[in-house]
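Annex B. Sample input.
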Amino acid sequence: MNDYYADLGVSRDATTEDIKRAYRKLARQLHPDVNPGPEAESRFKKVSQAYDVLSDPEKRRAFDAGADPYGGAQGGFGAGFTFSDIMDAFFGGAAGGHRGPRSRRQRGQDALIRMEIDLPTAVFGGDHELTVDTAAACSTCQGDGCQPGSSQRQCDACGGRGEVQQVQRSFLGQVMTSRPCTVCHGYGSVITAPCFECSGQGRVRTRRTLTLKVPAGVDSGTRIQLAGEGEVGPGAGPAGDLYVEVMVSPHDTFQRRGDDLHCTVEVPMTTAALGTVLPMETLDGPEQLTLRPGVQSGEVLTLRGRGVTHLRGSGRGDLLVHVTVLTPTRLTTEQEELVRQLARLRGEERSQGRVTHMDKGFFGKLKDAFLS
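Annex B, continued. Sample output.
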């Protein structure tokens, strides 16, 4: 009698996992596709027979007791092995994964649509209506794909199993393989009278309207997930998810940068020199913008908490107002004389000015303020 433990190179107290691991290693080394030759073929058969015995608790007990594990039947690879046994040893599961008829009812695919919103909705959130074209369950056949009054019939080719088996002879013995039935496509049943509405699919295309609650703080590219609002699957299977990608349309006044809003206010030279309080319309309503006397072009005034709501967290960004001072380009004779008088009063009759480094603009001044 063969020593199956020695053939696999394991001890007599080896666990099932030890046996499977040893067989997997030897089978890879000795398989004819990898190691051709009569000696490797013979050794491969012995290893396969050893695994057949030691992986079966009943056969292993009989062998350990000194009895014939096959009860007098012919041993060897062809005696009890199928193709799925080999796949189970190599991959820990049956060949092809799930065996038997597969369900016509399957989960639907996820769907993606794009939605455009305005800036106020992105800042504060709100409800937005969506029109979605997706697959829905067929109301005529209720998802079974059959015309009313008819039903599915068991497939005659596979007997309802969804697969057919074929036995092939090889130098290893008889190898049994399974493949999906080509008549019923693996479902185990056939639809003799398909529904005229959905052509047997159990679902139809439809258009519906959804109300989406847009969270405050979303930005272009943000995706909102609506669970179960995607495509209904074949056979009226569970619906996938719907993903809504947000696009924020440009605003006439404000530009978004992160969670801050930016805008520009233009003031005449005289207003900049004297200072003023300007009414300003923000997304929160009217505000008073104070310009100090002598405000310079390029300065930035900050309105705290008037920006975009933080999507993840509390609070809001700021509203930054960039000041632009407008220098007059056309002066009347009287206006020009008044400007000259101002220049004389300020001691600026002669052309004055100085060339500075580019960093000495607004951002350069800001840097100096931090370094001082």
